[in-house]
Design a protein that fits this description.
The protein is α+β, with helices and mostly antiparallel strands. The protein contains 7 helices and 18 strands.
């Protein structure tokens, strides 16, 4: 039956039987006008190469080896907790994702102003009762539980790692020693970190949460890691990874899921400004990270010399 229905679809969409490229996909999209067709390509690091007009019903197809497979769940495909169909991004934490057209209050799109509602728990105002209700909803931490507004200086404060009760109006975080001080009163005793990667910018949250800024253009810490692998099946498969920083703090990942657990830990937001090194990064350890990035559709910049990886960011 599947073959018969596929043949009928080709006939109705006026697409000849045979291999289909993007031109043919556009013809199918025209016929299936009540659906949005999306094509994810293996040859483009699992990036979207085609997206049809926006519709409530969506079809995601995975193009690999000149073949199309259906993707039933986009979060599962990218091994993430959520997937945004508006900006087409996968993510793990709702509080860290904000679409360009999303409401600044509840972080949902298409949120019109009806009647402002005040929240006594986070001291913020919301555009409507629906907006208020959404900021309370969560499968983990709600928006209400992640930030609070100071009633005096009106600054938005993240709940943790610094308790909102310890907030003092007018104090800012020193970008060198990380202490909270009043501007003009603080004479930092530490030397600033030598600046690197001048093109890097602060995170998207920096304007909204100025107390959580990191040193612009510098790095927070250096991390050193090493993979150990087993080769029973002829392939190198990491089963141990040890990481240390300059202070001697150590993290260890072991077992069959070592590579994924290490990469998920490494690519968390708090380590976005770290410099990472390995003893044989050029010819060995970097390949496991590249493999993870490609499988998960993460964009990256790499500098190579022959088969050796000189830099990865």
């Amino acid at each position: 039956m599947q073959v018969r229905l596929a043949g009928e679809l080709h006939q109705n969409a006026a697409v000849p039987l045979g291999p289909c490229g993007l031109d043919e996909v556009k013809q199918f999209q025209t016929y299936l006008s009540s659906y949005q067709i999306n094509i994810v390509s293996k040859d483009h690091q699992n990036a979207l190469i085609y997206t049809g007009p926006d519709q409530e019903k969506r079809i995601y197809l995975y193009l690999h080896d000149n073949h199309y497979d259906v993707i039933t769940k986009m979060p599962g495909f990218f091994e993430r907790s959520y997937y945004c169909h508006t900006c087409k991004k996968a993510y793990d934490h709702r509080e860290d994702h904000l679409c360009p057209n999303a409401c600044q209050c509840c972080r949902f799109p298409d949120c019109p102003i009806e009647s402002w509602v005040h929240c006594n728990d986070c001291n913020r105002m919301f555009k409507s009762q629906a907006c208020f209700d959404r900021h309370k909803q969560s499968s983990g931490k709600s928006i209400c539980a992640t930030m609070i507004k100071c009633p005096d200086c009106h600054r938005l404060i993240k709940r943790g790692p610094r308790d909102p009760e310890k907030h003092h109006c007018g104090m800012t975080k020193c970008l060198i020693c990380k202490e909270y001080t009043r501007p003009g009163d603080h004479r930092c005793y530490m030397q600033p970190v030598e600046k690197r990667n001048e093109g890097l910018s602060d995170s998207d949250d920096s304007s909204e949460h100025p107390e959580d800024d990191v040193t612009e253009g510098g790095y927070d810490q250096m991390l050193f890691f090493d993979f150990e692998c087993r080769q029973e099946n002829g392939n190198h498969e990491p089963n141990l990874c040890v990481i240390q920083n300059e202070a001697g703090d150590e993290w260890v990942f072991e077992g069959d899921n070592t590579r994924n657990e290490f990469c998920e830990w490494l690519f968390q937001k708090e380590r976005a400004n770290c410099v990472v090194m390995a003893h044989n990064f050029q010819g060995y350890d970097s390949y496991f990270i590249l493999q993870y990035l490609r499988e998960n559709g993460v964009k990256y910049d790499v500098i190579v010399r022959g088969a050796k990886v000189l830099s990865l960011s």
